[in-house]
Amino acid sequence: QVQLVESGGGLVQPGGSLTLSCAASGFTFSFSGMNWFRQAPGKEREWVAGVSSDGRTTNYQPSVKGRFTISRDNAEKMVYLQMNSLKPEDTAVYYCHSERLGYWGQGTQVTVSS
Q: Are 58 and 49 within 8 A, CB to CB?
């Protein structure tokens, strides 16, 4: 059974930091590129960042480049999103996504507010 379980969301003040985690199971994790997407209220889901299957290549949406860092641990079947200098416009539900399977996690809420 394929599972992607996100955690680490919460409420943070502008300028603060959070690290999201995604635990994968039920598929060959090391074969799949992984992504983080987000969906803000009333908006479509958008791609945020991606990492290649071997972890060597990363890509970012321009609005988060330099603030967010995606990484993965293939031994632990985990993918992470380190988010720094958070802004209110980063408020959204964040989803982990497997490129190979086209599969989504259930999401974790991030709220940036004073």
A: yes
